[in-house]
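Handout, section B. The chain below has 437 residues.
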Amino acid sequence: MTNHLRTVAWLTLLLFPSVAVAQDKPFDAKKAVAEMAEKGAQFDASALHKQGRKGLALVLDELFPNTAEEDGPLPTEKEVQDLLKKLGDKDARVREEAFRKLSRSGRHFRDLIEKATKDKDPDVRLRALMVQRALRTVWAWELTKQEPKFAPGFQVYLDGIKDAPRLELLARRIRLVLDDGSPDEQAFNLLIPALRALSRARDDRYGEILKPLLKHKDVRVPVMVIQAMGSHGGGNTYFPQLLLDAMTNDRKQVVRAALDWGPCPCWDEKKAPELRRRLTRIFKGDDAELKFRASFTLMHDFDDEDAFRYILTQTKSKDGERARTAIYWIGDSCHWKKPITTEILDTLSPFLRSPDDRLRRAASTALATYSGEAVVKALIPMLGDRVPIIVEGTGNLLLDQEDKAMLKRLLRQAAEKHENPNVRARAKEVLSKVTEK
């Protein structure tokens, strides 16, 4: 270094010591996490984003210390088996080193560690149990009381994570946390937005990392992952492959979650054919509840006639909730302004006379989805219903009919000649609001 450069460097240190120190100052993850908790939704994540993947890793180390990953490749199955044998070594240093490595890198070989807890060597059994305990995810207890404010700050940070290296790391660390089972409330409030950040990326690579969780023995884990990945808020043009995979799971709760939380309607042209095949397989299966749930998406997204006719039959279910749901599905917006058919009219009309207020309201709402003179004729008597909300709703629904001339003619007839004075009065009011196109 020349004398001139030395002089400049010396003057910089003398006059601007804080600048010189800041250049070499290591990133303080504890401080960043504390700032998230302090500022909540007002947290400025720009400095943290500049730290890239390393910054995210250090923050996650603070939140879930027992999921910290060692640098370098993961151990192989043989290496883990060798380490487990060393837990019973006569040399204390060998035992400690094996324990340390297993406690840091043994998460992907839990079955081998579980087997070691039943080893014939009592020392191996004892230390394998200690490894199991060490692998259990620990929530950073210092943040427990701060979590209500911390979670919004963490969300701000997550919203800015869009690069593949950090998203891949996030997926791996989420899996490590959930390997231990359903999380506590504090961890749950952080994992949900983290999962949604992965789903918003609209890339199935991250779902593939989480896929083993679909088989987790604690069924709450895959259900939680499915719900978060399905409610990503990224629009309907991306259907997560993870949810398609969940539809073939051997546990009903997992399949049900996939049916309930998938984007609907599905506008993912690449995934739609496979979605239909998997839904059809469920629909043709023996489980009545899953069949019913699959029928709606088949009807709504694929205009499946078999599914729609099945839904028509379910209006007669002895399960009142299922019957009402089927009626509302018949009136789903996917049928908006379709001409009424005799089959639909014959299915819904009896419910307009039901003693059950909820069924009458559901039927009138569903019927009004369709168009035609038969619809108006069936709805006009509902203007005299004993339930005010049904009366008001029917009046508003009638105004949605496109054929205003027909609507005015039938309302005028009702206002003049209907036997029920309440219908006559209400028909007159609705008639005054009709504007003929």
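Note. The two ends are 87 Å apart (CA to CA). Compare this with the example in section A.
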